[in-house]
Amino acid sequence: MDEFFRSNERKWNELAEVNYSSASSDYGVDAFLNGPEGARDLHRTELEELGSVEGLDILHLQCHFGMDTLLLARKGAKSVTGLDFSPVAIRQARDLAEKTGIEARFVEGNLYDTPQLIDGTYDLVYVTWGTICWLPDIEGWARVVAHFLKPGGRFYFLDAHPVLMSFDDLAPKPHAPVYDYFHKPEPIAFDGTEAYADESAVLQTKRSYEWTHPVGEVVTALIDAGLAIEYLHEFDTVAWKALAFMEPCEGGLYRLPEGMPRLPLSYSISARKAL
């Protein structure tokens, strides 16, 4: 398992450099730093579902370089803590916090080690976009989430739908699924030098590994970890150009071209820990 994590870390260190530093990056770091407040915001789905975070202690797991963590602070969170396994991303997150003057804590580490790295509990545990596909054990993930919630605390999750993950993201036109929808212990190996947020960038690290997690297994894992599901929503949009033939749409999102059948491309879950 360590070899998979090491390879993924190398890939994400490179992606962090591109996503944070490239002038062509879709992340819009310059707009976040230099534009008026609100020039760079969460995607429409989060904005519509998350509600007020005023006064909340928030833990953002798999936070990448922390822009969304800091956006939550801008929206009035009492405190924000972000965790990511990429040392490059955490260094950038701390740099971004310093440049903005936003108080935040960023911790480097493997998701499964988080209970040994971070103390305390939180009003909101936040996990969005491009997260659980990098994790082999969804039950262990759910236990980490539940561990950090205060009694009555909320978990908010939003990510690509596993139906979307069954397609070839580089195929130039619509096609049949090529990957299993259902989870397997062994990961799917991908070789590519593309950077999803900057089509002009070329990475040095080719190999990465991903795991699929069906919606039913994710929901069941959260229930088994002691959380009560408030809702499960599915959407025909996703936050990045996940398939080569997708088209941009409102709210900084992407969808399938007009005329194609509508498929679930992302989904969200809100869950609570009992009082």
Describe this structure in words.
With 275 residues, this protein is an alpha/beta fold. The chain has one domain: Vaccinia Virus protein VP39 (Rossmann fold). It is 29% helix and 24% strand. The strands form three sheets. A seven-stranded mixed β-sheet has the order 3-2-1-4-5-11-8, with helices on both faces. Helix 5 links the parallel strand 2 and strand 3. Helix 1 packs parallel to helix 5 and helix 7 packs across helix 8. The longest helix has 20 residues.
Overall mean pLDDT stands at 96
Gyration radius, rounded: 18 Å
CATH superfamily, by name, is Vaccinia Virus protein VP39
Computed structural class: alpha/beta
Low-confidence stretches: none
Counted up, domains total: 1
Q: What is the spatial order of strands in the main beta sheet?
A: 3-2-1-4-5-11-8
Query: How far is the N terminus from the C terminus?
Result: 36 Å
